[in-house]
Inverse folding.
């Protein structure tokens, strides 16, 4: 019995040993299998040599999830869902082309001809330093005359429609003065009576002085009364008309100011109107005290009246400097500078104007006409022609302005073609020819 039990234990031990050996072989076979574990990539650490060829049997086309580890050579860190196909419309070559031409403005030759576009080639030249101020156009003193009343009475204009600006001739009757209805009587009638009376007294004194009945002194007084009455009477008699005393224009010109109204009472010597020939005019500029030291170098001026965009140059109007003040007035801190020039016919005396006083001359300066400058948000620009129908907007830094031209400190090079006429039209074309940003589809 004891022997039987021992034998049974031996058999059981042998069986257990065989089972453990079989399990070990099965585990070895499992390790030879090729497995993909989620997240760890391809792990072939237990293989001597593992190669994939195009036809080695590895097929991942049906994998639900294909993952690459950080070191597998694929870098999609910046990719999410961005895919390009041949027909998706992305053209980066055209995009670069747009960037290089985005600042060009298209303005055809037909448009340029229609607006009369003009350009000027930038070059070094002379430029006058200037002082910008304000002033007024005045008539020259020698070209004006005042029409004054020669007697007391009521004014009646010969031409009731006469007004400022009416042309008159020398000796032309402007008004008649009548005193027939005045209490003091008609002065012309009085002058005639006084003349006749003085004439009779003088003739009587002549006969008495011969007989020494009156003294020489009394005779001389009678003669003086007669000469005075005669002068007054003849002066009025020459201008006497049926309606009163006629008052004429002393010079030919234009009525500058009509100082009295129809039917108004005037006394002897009272101004009735001012006649101006307007052949020569004066430009009076007011200069700040800060520029007093520069006044000695001023030689000429340009000016632009408030009613006109045209710039007038005294050098082209036979102008000359008359004088400049040596001190400011009590009422202001400005010094007057006065010029005289020929009136070309379209300059209005009394008009206010912008004045550009010209002083020293600079050489080798780049300047452009004032008409070429445009301003946007405090910056100054010009437009350059860079092709037959292509233009470009260019920012510039301005220096002094003499009313006709502006000094350019930076932004322009010699040889550039600057638009001087038609600038506004080119500016409008810039807004319509700007290319859109981004991709072109």
């Amino acid at each position: 019995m004891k022997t039987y039990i021992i034998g049974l234990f031996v058999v059981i031990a042998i069986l257990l040993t065989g089972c453990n050996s079989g399990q070990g072989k099965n585990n070895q076979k499992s390790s030879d299998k090729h497995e993909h574990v989620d997240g760890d990539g391809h792990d072939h650490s237990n293989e001597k040599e593992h190669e994939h060829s195009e036809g080695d049997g590895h097929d991942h086309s049906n994998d639900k999830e294909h993952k690459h580890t950080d070191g597998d050579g694929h870098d999609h860190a910046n990719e999410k869902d961005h895919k390009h196909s041949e027909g998706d419309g992305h053209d980066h070559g055209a995009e670069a082309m747009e960037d290089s031409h985005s600042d060009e403005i298209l303005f055809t030759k037909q448009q340029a001809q229609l607006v009369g576009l003009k350009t000027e080639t930038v070059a070094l030249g002379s430029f006058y330093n200037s002082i910008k101020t304000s002033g007024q156009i005045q008539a020259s003193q020698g070209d004006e005359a005042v029409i004054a009343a020669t007697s007391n009475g009521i004014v009646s204009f010969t031409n009731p429609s006469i007004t400022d600006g009416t042309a008159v001739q020398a000796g032309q009757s402007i008004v008649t003065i009548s005193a027939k209805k005045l209490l003091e009587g008609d002065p012309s009638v009085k002058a005639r009576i006084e003349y006749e009376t003085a004439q009779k007294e003088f003739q009587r004194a002549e006969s008495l002085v011969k007989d020494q009945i009156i003294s020489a002194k009394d005779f001389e007084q009678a003669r003086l009364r007669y000469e005075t009455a005669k002068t007054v009477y003849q002066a009025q008699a020459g201008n006497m008309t049926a309606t009163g005393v006629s008052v004429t224009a002393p010079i030919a010109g234009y009525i500058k100011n009509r100082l009295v109204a129809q039917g108004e009472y005037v006394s002897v010597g009272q101004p009735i109107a001012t006649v101006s020939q307007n052949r020569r005019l004066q430009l009076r500029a007011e200069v700040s005290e800060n520029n007093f030291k520069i006044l000695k170098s001023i030689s000429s001026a340009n000016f632009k009246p408030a009613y006109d965009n045209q710039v007038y140059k005294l050098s082209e109007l036979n102008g000359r400097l008359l004088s400049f003040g040596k001190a400011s007035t009590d009422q202001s801190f400005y010094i007057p500078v006065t010029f005289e020039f020929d009136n070309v016919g379209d300059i209005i005396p009394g008009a206010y104007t912008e004045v550009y006083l010209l002083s020293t001359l600079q050489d080798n300066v780049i300047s452009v006409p004032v008409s070429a400058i445009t301003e946007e948000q405090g910056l100054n620009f010009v437009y350059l022609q860079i092709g037959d129908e292509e233009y470009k907007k260019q920012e510039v830094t301005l220096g002094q302005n003499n009313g006709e031209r502006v000094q350019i400190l930076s932004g322009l090079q010699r040889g550039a073609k600057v638009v001087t006429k038609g600038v506004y039209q080119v500016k409008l074309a810039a807004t319509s020819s700007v290319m859109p940003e981004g991709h072109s589809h």
In short: Confidence is low (pLDDT under 50) at residues 23-100, 435-441. The helical segments are 2-31, 92-101, 109-115, 187-210, 216-238, 423-432. The CA atoms of residues 70 and 76 lie 10 Å apart.
